[in-house]
Amino acid sequence: MGGRIHGFLGGVLLTSALTYYTGEYIKKNKEFVSQQLKASNNIINENILSDASSRKLPEPEDKSIQYTSRAGVLETSKDIWNNEIISAVNWLYSIDWYKWGVVADEKLVSLSDKIAEQIVPKKN
Length: 124
What we know:
Helices cover 77% and strands 0% of the residues. By secondary structure, the protein is mostly helical. The chain has two domains: 2-52; 73-119, no CATH class. The chain is rod-shaped and about 165 Å long. The N and C termini lie far apart (167 Å). Component of the mitochondrial contact site and cristae organizing system (MICOS) complex.
């Protein structure tokens, strides 16, 4: 009869020890996982989402119609006048003055030759 009681008590002791160590293993695992989740949460909140712009809610899209207009007829007239002045100055700068001078010189020489021929006939 003593063998049965000792066997029963040994089984209870073994089962109790396995249950205790399994509970301790689960508890340590739970603490480890909790610690890792807290560290991950800290990394995400402190490093990834540290910008204030990423934490605030996005602003709604502006769907209003934007257009520009002139102040009035006077401003429009000034703009047209300024555009014409700029065009005239650009045309003036685009003239090839050397070529224009050569062409004018040739025309003046031919004109002066014609006048000189009319005044003084050529000798043959």
